[in-house]
């Protein structure tokens, strides 16, 4: 069925295209299809999807339903000129509808594609039942990093080939930014989405080591389609572009305590100067 969808998209695309990129959000009643075609100059031209695509997507969602597990909430389909395609399904992460969907829409979707408690993410439970809080399992660093990669796969702009993301934090002060390299060789700055930054904050907290604190900067690289490298720094000065506020260093040591031996000079001096 994905090949049929891909065939419709390739037939509708203008000549000379370099990549077709379609992101889909679906519920039982609501759809959002964002279709872009990357041209030789690197521009991502927006297109209306052919009318036959929408019914096939709803049928694909039905076919992907797994009892108790549910079905996909969003997908991204990328097609290359030689016909090679890659499809990524999101079963669990918030698909980031903008504006957010009303609770009645999520409830209808849950009725159509029920999930057990085990397979119902907290954000989805909140959308369906209006429930918030409750006991949550502790964050696991590797699972958080996987979610970072999964979110990036769905939010990176059409035509991306390589991403380098920088994140620096001390106490409550943080800096972030990213550069995207495209398949046509152009580069431009890109702002990481808030869910990715939130996952990195949680990863810092989950990475706390007894007497060693946690990491203070990260270089995260992703190469199309899904090759990932993450380099963490826990000891060197992160090299902030803007000087953190006076209390940030002391706050870092309160949140993430370090032994005297494990406290680098730049962090100690910053805390003493607060």
Helix/strand layout:
Elements: H1 2-12, E1 19-26, E2 31-38, E3 44-47, H2 53-63, E4 74-79, E5 85-90, H3 103-112, H4 122-129, H5 141-155, E6 160-170, E7 173-182, E8 187-190, H6 194-206, E9 217-223, E10 227-233, H7 248-255, H8 265-272
Antiparallel strand pairs: 1-2, 1-4, 2-3, 4-5, 6-7, 6-9, 7-8, 9-10
What does this entry look like structurally?
With 274 residues, this protein is an alpha+beta fold. It folds into 2 domains: 1-129, Murine Class I Major Histocompatibility Complex, H2-DB, Chain A, domain 1 (2-Layer Sandwich); 141-272, Murine Class I Major Histocompatibility Complex, H2-DB, Chain A, domain 1 (2-Layer Sandwich). Helices cover 31% and strands 26% of the residues. The protein contains 8 helices and 10 strands. Helix 1 packs antiparallel against helix 2 and helix 5 (141-155) runs antiparallel to helix 6. The longest helix has 15 residues, at 141-155.
């Amino acid at each position: 069925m994905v090949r049929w969808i891909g065939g419709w998209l390739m037939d509708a695309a203008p000549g000379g295209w370099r990549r077709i990129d379609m992101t889909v959000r679906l519920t039982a009643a609501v759809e959002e299809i964002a279709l872009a075609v990357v041209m030789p100059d690197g521009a991502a031209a927006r297109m209306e999807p052919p009318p036959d695509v929408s019914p096939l997507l709803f049928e694909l969602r039905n076919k992907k339903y797994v009892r108790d597990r549910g079905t996909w909430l969003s997908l991204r389909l990328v097609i290359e000129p030689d016909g090679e395609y890659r499809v990524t399904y999101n079963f669990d992460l918030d698909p980031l509808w903008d504006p957010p969907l009303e609770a009645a829409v999520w409830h209808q979707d849950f009725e159509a594609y029920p999930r057990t408690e085990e397979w119902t993410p907290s954000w989805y439970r909140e959308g369906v039942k209006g429930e918030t809080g409750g006991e949550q399992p502790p964050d696991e660093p590797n699972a958080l990093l996987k979610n970072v990669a999964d979110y990036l796969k769905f939010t990176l702009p059409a035509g991306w080939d390589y991403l380098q993301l920088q994140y620096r934090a001390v106490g409550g002060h943080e800096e972030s930014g990213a550069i995207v390299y495209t398949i046509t060789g152009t580069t431009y700055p890109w702002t990481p989405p808030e869910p990715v930054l939130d996952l990195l904050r949680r990863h810092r907290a989950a990475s706390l080591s007894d007497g060693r604190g946690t990491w203070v900067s990260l270089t995260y690289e992703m190469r199309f389609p899904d090759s990932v490298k993450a380099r963490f720094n826990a000891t060197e000065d992160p090299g902030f572009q803007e000087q953190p506020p006076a209390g940030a260093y002391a706050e870092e040591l309160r949140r993430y305590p370090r032994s005297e031996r494990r406290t680098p000079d730049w962090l100690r001096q910053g805390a003493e100067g607060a």
